[in-house]
Amino acid sequence: MSGHSKWANIKIKKSKTDAQRGRIFTKIGREIAIAVKMGGADPNSNPRLRDAIAKAKQNNMPNDNIQRSIKKASGELDSVNYEDITYEGYAPGGIAVIVEALTDNKNRTAGEIRHIFDKFGGSLGQTGCVSYMFKKKGVIIADKQGFTEDDMLMLALDAGAEDLTEDEDVFEIFTQPSDMGGVAEKLAASGVNVLSQDIDMIPDVEVDPADHIDSVRKLIDRLEENDDVQNVYHNAILPEEEEEE
Q1: How far is Cα of residue 30 from the mean position of the Cα atoms in its chain?
Q2: The domain spanning residue 217 has which CATH number?
């Protein structure tokens, strides 16, 4: 898993979305709604809802917003029914892209996603055309807090994690998706400062888009800006953008 940094992606997204917090809350609210519809309104018996609530809190979503989203989805308030849809395709340079969306109108969302791919030189493909190139993992970001890599690895393995990498001032801890919430809770109980926990699609091989970097970046950015899109995964090696003076 070397080379793939969830923490780098989080920092990039945070720098772009601090001024768009309302959009982030809306997307997380939809995740909560889907989780409730699938497994009920009790996070103690619904791991997907528990993970969505943890994500909401890590993004500083107010508790009132969280509870409102749960009540809407459980029928206590007027609600909208969302569907989970995944799109797969290619960005310029043969870059594999997976788009996860929650939508109340499949035709609208499909048209918008196809338009974005076409506009920036990509192509939308059939289900399964690129997903085989990725592995779904839970990724927990933990503050180093003076822990050595060996110390954190022992804690993570004891908690049920599979692997760990070191990245700047954090550790990235990998788990099976279904184990992520439990591992994060055990680490927190051991005194670890868990900065985030989320499901990620880890590419088997990362690809340099070469002369297509700008087009790939624009395509990914535009997808992430779409209101129906929850997550965008890709296997491109993209250098960090320089901050404007």
Answers
A1: 13
A2: 3.30.70.980
